Amino acid sequence: MPTTSKRREAVLDIPLELDRSRGNQALQVHAALRAAILEGRLAAGLRLPSTRALARQFRVKRNAVVIAYEHLQSDGLAEARIGSGTFVALLPAPARRPEPAKSVPETVRPLPAGPFALGKTYADPQLLRRLAAVTRRRIMRADDIEFGYGDPRGNKALREQVARYLATSRGFVCDPDCVFVISGTQQGLRLCAEALLSPGDTVWMEEPGYPVSRRTLALAGMTIVPVPVDSEGLDMGAGLATAAVARAAYVTPSHQFPTGVTMTMARRTALVEWARASGAWLLEDDYDSEFRYAGPPLTALAGIGGGDRVIYFGTFSKILGAGLRLAYMVVPPAAVDAVIAARAGHDRFPPGIIAGAVAELMASGFLADHIRRMRRRYRAARDVVVSALEASAGGALSVVKPEQGLHLLALLPAGLPPDAAAVIRERAGVQAWLLSETCVGKPEAEGFVLGFSGHEVAELDAAAVKLGEAGRSYLG
Ligand SMILES: Cc1ncc(COP(=O)(O)O)c(C=O)c1O
Predict the structure, then answer these.
(1) Is the distance from CB of 468 to CB of 388 less than 8 angstroms?
(2) Cα of 213 to ligand 1 centre, how many Å?
(3) Residue ranges around ligand 1 (CB below 6 Å)
(4) Considering only CA atoms, which of 214, 108, 120 is closest in space to residue 440?
(5) Whose CA is nearest to atom 2 of ligand 1?
(6) pTM score, whole prediction
(7) Strands of 55-195, DSSP E
């Protein structure tokens, strides 16, 4: 906007530069003003400075501004009002704004949060209060270690607590020096790919499997080979038949994502033996073992003697909330230095204050209590979904009630048209994943992956009824 003052005449106070290489002065002034008007930087109705003031501002001859204003008028971009001055036309040509991106890449779209969306957790007020109090105290008293540069592996207290937790809950003894605090499992996978693998290396990936990890490994330059999962877990024989030489395998042995299958001990041992014999890495994603509803806790792959070949991933995303971006990985001692170097080459080290607060919650036993409370909550949610689906689907869906985790599978009968599941999901208005969305190829059976944590039970109940009814009416 031009500034007004009694002593000085109005000038344009937006940055306008003349392109001195462009013709004469009149052309230069015209081009600068024209661009500013078309881009909306000089708004419709704005009074332009007098020709004298603008000539002084641009250090050009006054006549050049007079000619430029006349050009703008004949362009229809400015109008002269007798006795008042020259104004930016009220109906200028539409402002040229940067074109909006035609499509937002999938990775930056907000994740769905509606009924059955995966990855949600309950924002437990008790937890939030405690986390806030501990974090505040730590910030107020932060010492040089927490407030300064740190270890690329992350907060030491958290690494010690994680090592203690893994020994008592996952049957896996490790040195805190081998634990890395990471901001999510994907970051850990990326670090491992960088430190321990080479672009083009073959990685076996469960099929169906977690698409987010598949994408991360593919983006890191790995050649992904889908290996089928059967009722015993990853089918190693099929893996060997497709790609006998693989440098790594990504597995979710305790609770396969999304099928929920637990890898049998025979398969686990065989996988560890294969990794040892071939020098491959096993990327064990143990993402939801805290939520086990029946039976004893299962020993991690890393705990059954595979410690030298297994890189173990755990996350706080499901225990606390994905927004904290807090997870951890345990790497074999021989790989620690390479991973430290990779970690330090990114942003030196992870932030420590929240990590320190979470370590405190673990040490005081608060976190274990929180997990117990959430387990009860999520089990109740699971039961509501299973009953509502079974009652409403009338056999159209076969529901797999999981003994662990925060999602369940509802399968459709075989032989339906390829878009059946998408149509049913659309009609039900739910935000479940389709089983086919977790596959590279076509799944044997199509169905829905239903997240049940972090949603209100009444909403889940209603959504399950809608999905069941949509399935039943589709099948007629
Ligand atoms: C199979 C699987 N792995 C890992 C994670 C956790 O990922 P992150 O630690 O990046 O939040 C999830 C979360 O939904 C998951 O489903």
Answers:
(1) yes
(2) 8
(3) 118-119, 184-186, 210, 252, 257, 285, 287, 315, 317, 322, 327
(4) 214
(5) 287
(6) 0.80
(7) 78-81, 85-88, 179-182
Per the CB < 8 A criterion, the answer to whether 65 and 53 are in contact is no
φ and ψ at 282, to 5 degrees?
A: -105, 120
Under DSSP, is residue 207 helix (H, G, I), strand (E, B) or coil?
A: strand
Mutate to test the pocket of ligand 1, among 121, 162, 180, 185 (most ligand atoms within 8 A of CB): 185
Tens-digit pLDDT profile for residues 310-323: 999 999 999 999 99
Sole residue written with tokens 């939520």 = 291
Q: How far is the CA of 322 from the centre of ligand 1 (A)?
A: 9
pLDDT by residue (tens digit) across 413-460?
A: 999 999 999 999 999 999 999 999 999 998 888 999 999 999 999 999
CATH class of the domain whose range is 374-475: alpha beta
Contact 77, 93 (CB under 8 A): yes
Domains 25-88 and 151-351 share a fold: no
Q: Which residue has the higher pLDDT, 93 or 115?
A: 115
Calpha distance 182→189 (Å, rounded)? 10
CA-closest residue to ligand 1 atom 3: 287
- CA–CA separation, 152 vs 350, rounded Å? 7
Q: Which residues contact 145 (CB under 8 A, 6 or more apart)?
A: 352
pLDDT (0 to 100) of residue 42: 87
Q: Say which residue the tokens 């080479």 belong to.
A: 198
For 151-351, CATH number out of 3.40.1190.20, 3.40.640.10, 3.10.450.50, 3.90.1170.50 equals 3.40.640.10
Q: How far is the CA of 334 from the centre of ligand 1 (A)?
A: 26
Tokens of 385: 């979904």
Q: Which amino acid is at 188?
A: G
Domain 25-88 CATH (choose: 1.10.10.60, 3.40.50.300, 3.50.50.60, 1.10.10.10): 1.10.10.10
3-state secondary structure 234-285: ECHHHHHHHCCCCCEEEECCCCCCCCCCCCCHHHHHHHHHHHHHHCCEEEEE
Residue 99: pLDDT band by 50, 70, 90 thresholds?
Answer: low
Quote the tokens at residue 227. 């290996």
- Pocket of ligand 1, candidates 288, 289, 319: which has the most ligand atoms within 8 Å of its Cβ, to mutate? 288
Q: Measure 177 CA to ligand 1 centroid, in angstroms.
A: 23
Joined tokens for residue 295: 């039976």
The residue count for the chain: 476
Residue 359 has pLDDT above 50, yes or no: yes
226 beta partners: 205
Atom of ligand 1 at shortest distance to CA of 210? Answer: 1
Contact 353, 139 (CB under 8 A): yes
